């Protein structure tokens, strides 16, 4: 399997289910205390994404879908 990106090292799951994100990863990704992270998983992998980045992505998608919808209406109207 080929992974692209940076490896930051290992961490352990504590007794309360907590993990420590390595300092270099926090610095590189501009994570700070209190940031909310979206946690997802698939096939034994766990991903963490800042919730504001998810929100920005969803906002972009819905904006694009709205624009596309208007373009489709114009195109459909021009076929009549």
In short:
The chain is of the alpha+beta class.
Explain what you see.
A two-stranded antiparallel ribbon has the order 1-2. The protein starts with 22 loop residues before the first helix and ends with a helix. The chain contains two helices and two strands, in the order αββα. The protein is an alpha+beta fold and 80 residues long. A hairpin with a 2-residue loop joins β1 (37-42) and β2 (45-50). It is elongated. It has one domain (23-78). The mean pLDDT is 84.
What's the topology here?
Layout: H1 23-28, E1 37-42, E2 45-50, H2 51-78
Antiparallel strand pairs: 1-2
Name the descriptors.
alpha+beta; two-stranded antiparallel sheet; single chain
The major sheet is characterized as:
2 strands, antiparallel
Number of separate strands: 2
What's the average pLDDT?
84
What's the gyration radius in Å? Answer: 20 Å
Strand order of the largest sheet: 1-2
From the spread of the alpha carbons, the general shape counts as elongated
